[in-house]
Write a structure and sequence with these properties.
This protein has two domains: 44 residues, no CATH class; 44 residues, no CATH class. It has 103 residues and is mostly helical.
Length: 103
């Protein structure tokens, strides 16, 4: 996450089996770009670099979050709050800050 805070999210029923079956180099699913970056997450720069190597000329790292948000809003029955929590967006209202403490 951008702010380097721990982030938890729900996984699909198939995700744990998929993750357990992957060959892993360290604790991260997406290693920080090269073997010298073991123990570090993939950065925004690494994501940008990967996008530049594709044929998609107008894609941005920000576009991943935007696409995910559109998908949640248009293709699922999840409410806005759940979608924002899945993106690790902070709550803005003082009421929510005071009462919403779960993860």
């Amino acid at each position: 996450m951008k702010d380097r805070k721990e982030f938890k999210c729900a996984l699909s029923d198939d995700a744990p089996e998929l993750l357990e079956g992957m060959e892993r180099l360290d604790d991260f699913v997406f290693v920080g770009g090269s073997l010298k970056n073991l123990g570090k997450p993939l950065s925004d720069a690494g994501m940008s670099s990967a996008l530049k190597r594709t044929d998609v000329s107008n894609a941005t790292v920000h576009g991943f979050g935007s696409t995910f948000r559109d998908y949640i809003g248009e293709e699922t029955n999840l409410d806005d709050r759940s979608a924002e929590m899945a993106l690790a967006h902070t709550v803005d209202s003082q009421f929510e800050i005071a009462y919403v403490r779960g993860d």
